[in-house]
Amino acid sequence: MNEVDGTAVRMVQDPTQTIPAEATKPEMKVQLRTEGVNFYYGKYQALHGIDLDVYRHKITALIGPSGCGKSTFLRTLNRICETISHTRVEGKILLDGEDVMELDVTSLRRRVGMVFQRPNPFPKSIFDNVAYGARINGLHRQKRIRDIVEESLVRAALFEEVKDKLQQSALALSGGQQQRLCIARALAVNPEVLLLDEPCSALDPIATAKIEELLFVLKDTCTMVMVTHNMQQAARTAEYTGFFLLGRLIEFDKTDTIFRNPSKKETEDYITGRFG
Amino acid sequence: MATSQAVVRPANRFFRRVREGNEIAYTITVICAASILLVTVLLVFQLWNNSGIARHKFGWSFIGSQTWDPVNEDFGALPLAFGTLVSSALALLIAVPSGLMAAIFLAELAPPKASDVLTFLIELLAAVPSVIYGLLGIFLLVPILKDHVVPVLKSTLGWLPIFSGPFYGYSMLAAGLVLAIMIIPFIVSVSREVLLAVPVEQREAALGLGATRWEATWQIVIPYASRGIYGSIFLALARALGETMAVTMVIGNNPKIAMSLLAPGYSIAAVIANEFSEASSAMHAASLTELGLVLFAITVIINGAARLMMLTTAEHAK
Amino acid sequence: MTNTLSFRRRAVNNVMLSLTAVFTVLVVGSLFVILGYLAYNGWHFLNWDFFTKLPTPVGEPGGGMANAIVGSAKMLLVATMIGVPFGFLGGVYLSEFGGEHGLFPFLVRYTTDLLNGVPSIVIGIFAWTVLVRPRHHYSAWAGGIALGIMMVPIALRSTEEFLQGVPNSMREGAMALGASKAWTIFTVVIPAAMKGIISGMMLDLARVAGETAPLLFTALSSRYWSKGWDEPTASLPVMIFNYAVSPYDDWHQQAWAAGFVLLALVLLVNIIARGVLSRATYK
Ligand SMILES: Nc1ncnc2c1ncn2[C@@H]1O[C@H](COP(=O)(O)OP(=O)(O)OP(=O)(O)O)[C@@H](O)[C@H]1O
Ligand SMILES: [Mg+2]
Questions:
Q1: Which three-class secondary structure state does DSSP give residue C186?
Q2: How far is C193 from chain A (nearest CA, A)?
Q3: What residue owns the CA closest to ligand 1's atom 22?
Q4: Tell me: the pLDDT tens digits for C221-278?
Q5: A27 CA to middle of ligand 2, Å?
Q6: pLDDT grade, residue B11 (50/70/90)?
Q7: Probe ligand 1: pick from A39, A62, A68, max atoms within 8 Å of CB?
Q8: Residues 6 or more apart from A270 whose CB is under 8 A from it?
Q9: In the structure, what pLDDT confidence band is assigned to residue B315 with cuts at 50, 70 and 90?
Q10: Which of chain A's residues have a Cβ under 8 Å away from the Cβ of B3?
Q11: Nearest-CA residue of chain C relative to B117?
Q12: What's the topology of domain B57-317?
């Protein structure tokens, strides 16, 4: 993907990132940081002063009751929230220390991929779906694209199931396959961070297990932020968990701590309510 | 930390923006969208300007005057407006009940599959060009009227002024009938949509109270959908008023106001179609253009009213 | 008492419901009458000469309408070149850039609907004042442009409608991969709606193919081959009109043949377009 100007920016940064003294500092493990993020749908304020750190190559789970602003928060991270008119973000969101508002939005989104709640494959072939990201990044060499597609499908644990029908429509796949296709599609642009908005909500337990396995493997190369309603899922997969309530981040800590020993009463109520 | 600004020079930035294409796409599409505004404004301007001398000469009496006489350059729109209105009214009188009945059948009674097939056929009927309706009007409808319908009509209802006088075939009656046949498909397909949008609970509530199928439809469903149905009628009326070819071919082309539907008449659109390319003088052309302006104004108003009704139905349905 | 009442109600119910069926049969039946009568008369007079020969002078039998067929094709080509790009791109604007609110998109939607409702004869006058009067002659250009103007509103609204039918998740999916808005529109949204858009355009074209009124005083007609695009040009609908209202029997026969050809083409395009439409992915 080196042809891409977006990645060129990243390569220039690399030397600064590898300065040894800084790299050992604990905050360098923070890949994505938000500082006092407020979000407004028109006049309605959906997020209130969110401060949250996302650690490199870890899974961060966001939990909370419906409508508390988890999706909204996730959508501010790659600025996809801007596609809705009459919305406004305040505060700072830093990706590797850079304010995302200053970044070019398309290269930001290449670095911060997203998987949506409902699988949304394009009405194109399986191959074209996965190749989409590479193609819009200006890659046209067939061989290279084929490699990327295959590699991404393998990483998303879908290759074996679809290798004989890459030219068929993606809409013919099952829900779970579609969701893995969407993950493959996101992986094909090599994102540094992957945002997952309830990726398993439309899936049965078997497909869910497959995707969880997948997340586990992806951790080696990718930082993930995942919204989930399924608390066992959060407990199983995530290192860190944040609890949202009414647009506020009530508590953020190691997953273990949140589930066993939460410091806030609201968190405990929510978790025990769900578990009990 | 290196910032993106430090790396991306203004020139690169420019090329990236070009590559992303947002501004280009916006500009091109907005120009295309604006062109329709421009054309509409230009249309009104041209109609207004080109009818100038006629408007000055005749003023408001243009609409009230009974003569349309190209030879003596005396132009009044009344007989033409009369023909347009009467033929359209006649068409509605026939098309609304029959179209509505068919729509009720398709929305309420027919099994969905059959309803879809029948609606498909009816929509094909709406796609038939008007000159074809005119052709069939001349060679099929007019002879039938002359040989079979009107003799019966005259012997039974001949005492009515609207069926008085001789009948030569080309007439207001023929024009109204052709128009009716042309707008029925339109009324059927729009009304059917409107009826299908009525919530099932409405019907079930009525049926649950012991109403017959017809009573549920007539007393509950139709009133519920009435605004949408009025909307479809208005849209159909606007079409009938502006319909040109089919009317021109069967109305008889005689600019006289007659009581009888059996007498030939003329309509605004038909006069324009027949005389415009051979307009004898500047005044003639300007008067025809003014007729166009009148027709434009009428259809804009009626279409607007129709849209308003459909719009309030949509809100009502929410 | 209640018995008679319920008998009356039942009778009304049965009669009215039967009537709705009768009217449906009548309406649908009229399609078959039209098709049948036209086919019966038209087929009868249709022969190879119709497609290859010029019209003959009055009284001389035979001849065809080759010039009108070519003329119609020429004008429809011009109309397509105007109606499709302007309608399509304008529809893209309304659906993707304009948004639901705002003054400009409102005005565009409003005038589009307005223009769509303007009688075609009025469009003809307009085209005459702009394209014929200043240049003092009728032409295929003028006719084609008049038809093109008629195509724009429908093309625009149908494009908008089909693009709106594409779920927003498609747009977000593409944008989240780093596609710019323009790329999202042109590589994901439009392809997803393509079948619908194309069938909408086909229906639009079929509609103007039968339009007569806007051609009467823009392209006029002609009994000869028109050289180039800047001369009075014959078209099938205008020929049908002129021949049908003429007093000559052999012209009437030609009108039947032409009517049959025109209707067959229009209905064929309609059936194909609606067939495609029913299998469109979205909407
Ligand atoms: N497009 C929008 N316009 C206006 N308000 C919105 C919009 N999207 C979300 N909201 C509001 O913002 C708040 C947060 O919504 P959000 O979708 O972020 O919740 P969520 O935590 O993801 O809920 P869920 O678990 O149900 O997905 C809600 O009150 C919602 O009503
Ligand atoms: Mg959500």
A1: helix
A2: 10
A3: A71
A4: 999 999 889 999 999 999 999 999 999 998 999 999 999 999 999 999 999 999 887 7
A5: 29
A6: low
A7: A68
A8: A63, A64, A65, A243, A245
A9: low
A10: 98, 102
A11: C28
A12: MetI-like fold (1.10.3720)
Separation in Å, CA A164 to CA A14, A130, A150, A172, A211: 39, 15, 12, 14, 21
**Domain segments of chain C: what residues?**
2-45, 50-278
Residue A242, ligand 1, Cβ within 6 A: no
CB B206 within 8 A of CB B216: yes
> How many other C-beta atoms lie within 10 A of the C-beta of residue A5?
18
ipTM score of the complex?
Answer: 0.93
Q: Cβ separation of A16 and B20 shorter than 8 Å? A: no
pLDDT in tens, A88-143: 999 999 999 899 999 888 889 999 999 998 899 999 999 999 999 989 888 889 99
pLDDT of residue A176: 87
* Domain C50-278 bears CATH identifier 3.90.79.10: no
Strand order in the sheet with A98-99: A44-55, A30-41, A87-95, A98-99
In B17-56, the residues whose Cβ lies within 8 Å of chain A are 19-20
Distance A73 CA to ligand 1 centre (A): 10
Domain boundaries, chain B: 2-50, 57-317
Determine whether the interchain pair B20/A106 forms a contact, defined as Cβ–Cβ distance below 8 Å: yes
| Domain A30-120+191-271, CATH among 3.90.360.10, 3.40.50.300, 3.40.50.1480, 3.30.230.10 | 3.40.50.300
Which residues are within 8 A (CB) of B258 and not within 5 positions of it... i.e. 6 or more apart? B165, B172, B264, B265
A75 lines ligand 1 (CB under 6 A): no
The alpha carbon of residue C52 is apart from the nearest alpha carbon of chain B, in Å, by 22
The per-residue pLDDT for B9 is 56
